[in-house]
UniProtKB/TrEMBL annotation:
Gene3D superfamilies according to UniProt: P-loop containing nucleotide triphosphate hydrolases
InterPro entries named among the record's database cross-references: P-loop_NTPase, Shikimate/glucono_kinase, Shikimate_kinase/TSH1
Keywords: Amino-acid biosynthesis, Aromatic amino acid biosynthesis, ATP-binding, Cytoplasm, Kinase, Magnesium, Metal-binding, Nucleotide-binding, Transferase
Chain residues that bind Mg(2+): S14
Protein name, per record: Shikimate kinase
HAMAP family: Shikimate_kinase (MF_00109)
Positions bound to ATP: G10, S11, G12, K13, S14, S15, R120
The species this protein was found in: Hyunsoonleella jejuensis
EC number: 2.7.1.71
Chief location: cytoplasm
General function of this protein: Catalyzes the specific phosphorylation of the 3-hydroxyl group of shikimic acid using ATP as a cosubstrate.
Amino acid sequence: MIIVLLGYMGSGKSSIGRILAKKLNYKLIDLDDYIEEKENATVKDIFRTKGEIYFRKKETEYLKALLKLKENTILALGGGTPCFAGNMEAILEEDNAVSIYLKGSLPFLSEKLFQKKAKRPLIAHIETEELMTEFIGKHLFERSQFYNKAEITVLTDNKEKAEVVEDIILQLF
Ligand code: S3P
């Protein structure tokens, strides 16, 4: 089985993926890390030198290949992955995959991301917390239609990571 973790930037996909993979003894693949390895460049540099359209093309290409894996895998996506090029449909159509939306609220994501924006090309330029909240509010509104298609939703606000992992396991098995 492939457990696909999706959600907005800062929702904990990578860190929760790591704990879940250990607990279930699954392999972990973080799509951003995978892209960085394959392209031999950071996501930030890919955006800067080749542009977002190139990044999205590669993201779709690698996602589709990874969805065919036969090993038990936790696949942590990038925040935008489900929202482009029919990727969410591809995930939902894959019999072997189950999708989980890690859902954080706007205030929760906004506060966290303001501290951790540097590596994220889409938000790195935002200068105040107020502007960050405004940007994420709009972005989340556009993207929620994709995230909400996930088969399972787990709320993450004010929860320890271990608690989120327990919630996922309870809903999965
Ligand atoms: C993106 C999220 C990032 C990364 C890229 C674009 C997005 O991943 O894929 O910067 O469009 O939301 P994280 O969600 O892991 O930050």
